[in-house]
Each structure stands twice: as structure tokens, then as C-alpha cells.
From TrEMBL:
Pathway: Sulfur metabolism; glutathione biosynthesis; glutathione from L-cysteine and L-glutamate: step 1/2. The lineage of its organism: Eukaryota, Fungi, Dikarya, Ascomycota, Taphrinomycotina. The keyword Magnesium does not apply. Residues 49-238 form the NADP-dependent oxidoreductase domain. Belongs to the aldo/keto reductase family. Glutamate--cysteine ligase light chain subfamily. GO terms for cellular component: glutamate-cysteine ligase complex. Keywords: Glutathione biosynthesis, Oxidoreductase. GO terms for molecular function: enzyme regulator activity; glutamate-cysteine ligase catalytic subunit binding; oxidoreductase activity. PANTHER family: GLUTAMATE CYSTEINE LIGASE REGULATORY SUBUNIT, GLUTAMATE--CYSTEINE LIGASE REGULATORY SUBUNIT. This is GCS light chain. It comes from the Eukaryota. GO terms for biological process: glutathione biosynthetic process. InterPro entries: Gclm (IPR032963), NAD(P)_OxRdtase_dom_sf (IPR036812), NADP_OxRdtase_dom (IPR023210). It comes from Protomyces lactucae-debilis. The keyword Cell cycle does not apply.
Length: 251
């Protein structure tokens, strides 16, 4: 198997036609097409115009369904290392992990992880905690966790290391119209921020990946191991200066 990481330039500079639908992954596809068109060539030019301290850098890592906990644990470091190398920084401020199949809605908001699932989730999260200990990420978060699941993860993470306990949980209110009361209470008790997001449940479906890669080698089967989105906000102005996408593709 051969793997490569596609990284986009600044998606904020893409044509407005690609970003008209905020609830689609059109921006992601356009950004990756741009990366392929430029042969994924790196540049020595700085992507950020201000000093590092002027930015709040958030990296969201989306795992794909057909990957193991072991490979995801390794991919956490790969994704973060690729991002900080591209941005020419030493760390990201917030790393958010988005696991496939975890969606908070009215039907499963009370569901907790079974023992095997919690073990797998914890293994991956602990890899992220290691990056906090190394100084490559300043804080960690998750996406779409119910109160029960968030408590399980928090307690398990605390047993492993008190560095990198979850401080953010992202919720898509299209799936869960009202923030659950138990989740609000837990967040308040554990000092966890609840943010909303509009990301798709599956950022890069296989059919779209096939269409994306068909020009490179029509005879090769490509699979995505993960997708990421990095956002750099100028803190003093609240303006997004840089937004980039990446994907690790295996063939």
C-alpha cells in the first residue's frame, strides 16, 4: 500500500462558486482538486502573515469508517505533524477528533459506549493526549458526543493523563435541534465548551474520492484514511485568514 497526504492551499481564495453551499463538502473537493492540479507542490512562502501568537488555530480530524483504532492512533500524529509543518508553527491550539458513526441526535443521546468501543476511542484519544504532552497541541476536543459518552471519555482520559482532557464538544444542531440538558450540565461541571458545527457526517465518501482521483490513475483503487480541516483565526479581529484541507489517501 502506498499512502500520500494531499494538502490544499488557502481555501479562502477559492472561487465563490465552490463555497456557496455551506452544508456541503464542495469546498473540500475543490481544495483537494487544487492540490492535485498543482501536483501537491509545497511552497516556502509563509501561509500566515501575523506572528503565531495572533492566531487561534483549530485542527479538526475526521476519521473514515474502514480504519482501525491502531491506525487512527498513528494518524493523529501524522495529521498534526503535517499541519504544523505546512503552517510553519510549533503547535495547534485545539485538536478536535471526529469519529465515524458517532452522531448526537434525539434517538441516541443517552447511549454510552460499550466496553470494546470505549477501549478503541480511548486508544486514539490517548495518542492525542501524547501530542499535548509533547507541546504539539494545546487543547483537545471531540465532536457529536452525548453526555454519557463524553463522561466516559473524560474519566478514561483522566486516568491516562491529566494533560489534554476534552475541553470542547462540537454538536451539529441539524441532527440535534436542542442542546440536551444533561450535556449542558456535564459541560458546565467539567468546564467543557459546547460549540456548533456544520460539517457533514462523512466528509469524503468513496464515490466522490473516486471522481476526485480518476484523473490520476483510473486503474488504481484509492481509499481515504482521514480528512482534516484547519482554520486559523486572527484573534484580535475574529477573522479567518487561512482555512485548509488535507486528506491521507492510500492506493
Amino acid at each position: 500500500m502506498v499512502a500520500r497526504i494531499l494538502q490544499s492551499d488557502n481555501a479562502m481564495r477559492l472561487s465563490p462558486n465552490h463555497t456557496a453551499l455551506s452544508d456541503s463538502n464542495a469546498e473540500l473537493i475543490a481544495a483537494l482538486k487544487q492540490s492535485l492540479a498543482t501536483n501537491d507542490s509545497a511552497t516556502d512562502d509563509a501561509l500566515l502573515s501575523e506572528d503565531r501568537d495572533e492566531y487561534e488555530i483549530t485542527l479538526k480530524l475526521f476519521f473514515t469508517p474502514d480504519t482501525t483504532a491502531e491506525s487512527r492512533s498513528e494518524d493523529v500524529a501524522r495529521c498534526v505533524d503535517a499541519t504544523i509543518e505546512q503552517l510553519k508553527v510549533k503547535s495547534v491550539d485545539l485538536l478536535i477528533l471526529a469519529f465515524p458513526g458517532i452522531v448526537l441526535d434525539a434517538e441516541d443521546e443517552e447511549d454510552a459506549f460499550d466496553e470494546a468501543s470505549l477501549k478503541d476511542i480511548a486508544k486514539v484519544y490517548q495518542a492525542a493526549q501524547d501530542l499535548v504532552a509533547q507541546g504539539k497541541a494545546k487543547g483537545l476536543g471531540v465532536s457529536e458526543f452525548s453526555a454519557a459518552r463524553l463522561k466516559q471519555l473524560y474519566d478514561t482520559a483522566a486516568e491516562y493523563n491529566d494533560a489534554g482532557l476534552p475541553t470542547v464538544n462540537q454538536i451539529n444542531l441539524k441532527d440535534c435541534c436542542v442542546m440536551p440538558a444533561d450535556l449542558i450540565a456535564l459541560a458546565k461541571d467539567r468546564n467543557i465548551k459546547l460549540f456548533t458545527h456544520g460539517d457533514l457526517k462523512e466528509m469524503l465518501p468513496q464515490a466522490q474520492l473516486d471522481d476526485l482521483m480518476v484523473g490520476t490513475d483510473a486503474q488504481t483503487r484509492f481509499t481515504a484514511k482521514w480528512v482534516s480541516k484547519v482554520t486559523c483565526v486572527v484573534k484580535s479581529r475574529g477573522v479567518v485568514e487561512f482555512k485548509g484541507y488535507a486528506a491521507m489517501i492510500e492506493s
